[in-house]
Design brief:
With 164 residues, the protein is mostly helical. The protein has six helices and no strands.
Length: 164
């Protein structure tokens, strides 16, 4: 990725505790732009041992697996570099020895998932307590409600309406 594109993960988008959700969204945008976002989802391909009596087709499959594994390793290294570059120094020290980008993000989710839970609670509480004040502007109330619903969506909460 050119240096100017990596600026998306610097400055205000650098990972600090309360902005984990925004940071992760920005990270996924950058990794998907680089076409390496799959490393946060997929584990590396396991490569088997070639038997001595392998035929040409088995060798071709094995070579394709080795090529795919090497690509995954290179893409994972790039993703880890983006992740580490977008963290505070303290978080970098805690995560630089982790084996892959997926485990880094999973660990960060465990660390900062509590903040997401609190944020979900606060936004949900605000949504369910929101009332149009008598004589209040309906448009402002609707915009407030839409904003709260969008914030819930950012936190991966979907409210489903089931009427039976």
């Amino acid at each position: 990725m050119p240096l100017k594109d990596s600026k998306n993960l610097e400055g205000e988008n650098k990972l600090i505790r309360p902005n984990f959700t925004d940071w992760l969204r920005n990270l996924r945008i950058v990794l998907n732009l680089e076409k390496i976002g799959y490393v946060l989802i997929q584990d590396p391909l396991l490569i088997g041992i070639i038997p001595d009596d392998a035929d040409v087709d088995q060798l071709a499959v094995h070579n394709a697996d080795v090529t795919a594994f090497d690509k995954w390793k290179d893409d994972d290294l790039r993703a880890k570099s983006y992740i580490l570059a977008s963290m505070t120094n303290e978080l970098q020290r805690q995560h630089e020895k982790m084996s892959d980008a997926k485990s880094m993000v999973n660990h960060l989710q465990e660390l900062y998932g509590e903040y997401n839970r609190i944020a979900r609670y606060e936004v949900t509480k605000a949504l369910f307590r929101a009332k149009l004040q008598e004589g209040g502007n309906v448009g402002d109330h609707v915009l407030n409600m839409i904003g709260l619903l969008q914030r819930l969506e950012e936190l991966n909460i979907s409210l489903t309406l089931s009427l039976k």
